[in-house]
Every structure is written in structure tokens, then in C-alpha cells.
Amino acid sequence: MPSDDEPTYDEPKYTAPGLSLAQGGEAASVLQERLTALVDLALTLKHIHWNVVGPRFIAVHEMLDPQVASAHRMADKVAERIATLGAVPHGTPGSVVRRRPWADYPLGRSTVIEHLQALDTVYDGVASSHRAAARRLEGLDDVSRSVMIRQLRRIELYQWFVRAHLEDPDGALRDAR
């Protein structure tokens, strides 16, 4: 969570039409949590891209770059929505580290299966939190909620891509977690 040395900004003087300042601020706060997660996800995906080794390396290596690009686009959409609501999006590395309540990605150079199992866990957290954010935004800000739902579809698709590498012929996932 933000520390006392986090830069401070004036409270928004405006928000999106049809929302009160309080509603815009609350929606922006929900979105800031998602921005933090999406910036972290993009960095984590690139880290895996650089550090995955072993059989099926190239398939996973090449699968991850489009996911990185998509996570960057999702972060940009969320940051722009925060700004539209009159708030300040925080996306600096220090801000992301201070604001995230989860531990850093645990692996360095590691095998395809180990990275994909860890990435499946990352996607579980991002997808679950996006779904919770969509619920929190319901009745508060339908535009922001719509952004979350569209992104959730993409996040779940990418998790399916990851799980396809972990699935056995009977449909069970390899799980070393």
C-alpha cells in the first residue's frame, strides 16, 4: 500500500459527467488497484519470457510477447480511465511495488513447466481481482466496470493458453504448487 513518502496530489476537481466526485474517486481507487496489477503483470510476463528454459522454450517464449503487449494496452486503458475520472494514475515502478499487496514473482531462470505453473497462479490472482473490481464497480461506474469485464475476457483467454501447456490428456492440470 502507499507509503507516507508517496507523492501527494490534489483531490480531483472534476470527474466524469453523471458521477459525483466521491463516486469518481471511489471508481478511480478501484482502478488504481488494477493498474498496479496490470503493470506488475506486464513486467512479470517479460521476466518469464527472458528466463524460461527447456523443452517447448520457443513456444512459450513466443506466446508471452503478445501477452506482454496486451497487458501494456490494458494498463493504458485503465490509466486513461483513472485520468478521465479526474484522478492521477500511479504507474511508476516504486509506486507499483509500494501499492501491491502480493509477493514478487518467485522464479528466475526456470523450466517451462515451473514458470507456467507459477504464471497460472499469477493469472488466478489477476483474474479474480479483476472480477472483484467489476463487482465493486457495479452500480458505481458502468464505464469502468465495462473496462474490467472486457479485460477479464482477455486475461482468462491468456490463462487458458498457459493451462493448455499444463493440461494432461484427461483434462487435469499439472500442479506442483
TrEMBL record:
Gene3D superfamilies: 1.20.1260.10. PROSITE patterns: DPS_1. Residues 31-168 form the Ferritin/DPS domain. Pfam families: Ferritin. Belongs to the Dps family. This is DNA starvation/stationary phase protection protein. It comes from Cellulomonas chengniuliangii.
